[in-house]
Write a structure and sequence with these properties.
- There is one protein chain.
- It is built from five helices and twelve strands.
- The chain is α+β, with helices and mostly antiparallel strands.
- The chain has two domains: 188 residues, 2-Layer Sandwich (BirA Bifunctional Protein, domain 2); 43 residues, SH3 type barrels.
- α2 runs antiparallel to α4.
- The protein is globular.
- The chain starts with 5 loop residues before the first strand and ends with a strand.
- Bound molecules: biotin (BTN).
- Biotin binds next to α1, β3, β6 and β7.
């Protein structure tokens, strides 16, 4: 990924929040990475918390600029980051890894990684992206969290967090190159090929459970689902939840 600064912290509120503060105080440049051993208030999607035992997992946020992308193309950032994370997981766990749309990574049908991307726009121009990634590496007990797993729980092996980070950074570099040359069809094809639920899955829509299957995602980031009784329709991520 060229030259970048790795800002390593023992503890912080949330690495995404830290990056935002550093942007405000002009103490961070595009490409830089904030990595923490512990977060007091790790954030997930939809205002959820992201809890992680001290020193056990990878907690990292990348600050990236994508001047060549339009706001509409920002869904591709999610696609390439999801692909980078699943490839990183796959280095340790050889099979049964899927992307649960929009951007959870599953291993053995449980959540092993979460991604929180916060995009900023300047008018109709795309400005920058705060890309937060949590990968469960060595944690084996998840109190009050259902359906969570880690590399250690699945493989029985401990791994160095730094090594996982190194692999992740390399993978992100690889996929962002594909994004910078705007090979959008390639990216969406790869993302679709890794989706969870292409044969069968359950969905939650307005608190009701449905059965069906995932067809594919659209360039905008929405998804096409075939739901028994409802046919094939397009859904946005705030209207449907894929169940595991
Ligand atoms: C989710 O699945 O809901 C997204 C979880 C994202 C967690 C990561 S950990 C590093 C970064 N800092 C945060 O506060 N959240 C992200």
């Amino acid at each position: 990924m060229g030259h970048y600064n790795l800002i390593k912290l023992n503890a912080t509120r949330s690495t995404n929040d830290k990056v935002k503060m550093l942007i405000k105080s002009k103490k961070i440049s595009p490409g830089d990475i904030v990595w923490a051993e512990y977060q007091y208030k790790g954030r997930g999607q939809y205002n959820n918390n992201w809890n992680s035992s001290r020193g056990k997992n990878l907690l990292v946020t990348l600050y990236k600029e994508f001047r060549e992308l339009t706001p509409k193309q920002s869904s591709y950032i999610n696609f390439v980051i999801s692909l980078s994370v699943i490839d990183t997981i796959e280095y340790y766990i050889s099979s049964d890894n899927y992307i649960k749309w929009p951007n959870d990574i599953l291993s053995a049908q449980k959540k092993i990684s979460g991604i929180l991307i916060e995009n900023n726009f300047k008018g109709d121009k795309f400005n920058n992206s705060i890309i937060g990634i949590g990968i469960n590496v060595n944690q084996t007990r998840f109190k009050n969290i259902v359906n969570a797993t880690s590399i250690k729980l699945i493989t029985n092996k401990e791994n160095r967090i730094e090594e996982v980070l190194d692999k992740l950074i390399k993978n992100i570099g690889y996929y962002i190159k594909i994004l910078r040359v705007k090979d959008f069809d390639n990216i969406i094809g790869l993302y679709n090929s890794r989706l969870y639920g292409r044969d069968y899955c359950k969905f939650l829509i307005n608190d009701k459970t449905f059965e069906g299957k995932v067809i594919d995602v659209n360039p905008s980031g929405s998804i096409n689902l075939k739901i028994n009784g409802l046919g094939i329709n397009k859904y946005e991520s705030n209207t449907v939840k894929i169940l595991i």
